[in-house]
UniProtKB/TrEMBL annotation:
Origin superkingdom: Eukaryota
Name assigned to this protein: Uncharacterized protein
Organism encoding this protein: Reticulomyxa filosa
Amino acid sequence: MISLEHLYSLESEIKSALGEVQKKLVTVCAGSADNKEIDNISERLNYAKVKIRLMELELRQIQDRQDGRKFRPIVKSFEDQVQEYNQQLLWAIGGKRITQAERLREKYGMI
């Protein structure tokens, strides 16, 4: 059975991940970030997405539905933030996402 403490810990993990993304997006928007930092932001966004999905699954398993209902707006807020930060990242890097394979091809002429 899922406890409320576990949901609160997931909530704090998601908040901290999104807080990191928000801080790093400032440097990306200013144009002073490299590809490694952009990859890091993307990884943190994916981490937050996974934790949000986990939180949604665990909300379905919670015994007290009344307690579970108060987390639904929180989950929706997190999903909206992830989508907004993803859009900001795409705008900041000009809409083109450079993959690891493309970077290797540019650097070494391989793959």
